[in-house]
Design brief:
By secondary structure, the protein is α/β, with parallel strands linked by helices. The chain contains four helices and five strands, in the order βαβαβαβαβ. The protein has helices at 15-27, 47-60, 71-74, 87-97, and strands at 5-9, 33-38, 65-69, 81-84, 103-107. Strand 2 (33-38), helix 2 (47-60) and strand 3 form a beta-alpha-beta unit. Helix 1 runs parallel beside helix 2. The radius of gyration is 13 Å and the shape is globular.
Length: 119
């Protein structure tokens, strides 16, 4: 879209699929890599720890900007991470940034409606 390249993987998300997506995205040869990570739903008692582990992994990958969407990730916010309650708020922020020439991964559970960020 425009001069940005999007990878939309927002049909399903669980800890293993998030790890693989972040690892592969981190290895991708591209300039200005951004990731929008939506909460992983239906993890029950493991939710907080799994979201923490995924956020720590993202911080170790070769990714320039990390943006999270949802209450689980927002509760773990770090100074270097943009955290939003929902996709509509993330969309408004993204539009205001006027991002150009980026490669952007959108990864999260279907219920987070990450496609709204780029609509």
């Amino acid at each position: 879209i425009g001069n940005n390249r999007f990878i939309l993987d927002a049909y399903n998300a669980n800890p293993s699929s998030m790890r693989v997506a972040l690892d592969n995205f981190g290895k991708l040869e591209a300039s200005h890599k951004m990731v929008f990570m939506g909460d992983m739903l239906e993890l029950g008692a493991y939710s907080e720890q799994e979201h923490r582990d995924i956020l720590l992994l993202a911080l170790q990958c070769n990714i320039d900007q990390i943006i999270t969407i949802g209450p689980q990730f927002k509760a773990l916010a770090q100074p270097s991470v943009h955290a939003f309650d929902n996709s509509a708020d993330a969309h408004a922020w993204f539009i205001a940034q006027n991002v150009q020439g980026a490669t952007i991964l959108l990864k999260g559970s279907r219920g987070m409606q990450l496609e709204k960020i780029i609509q």
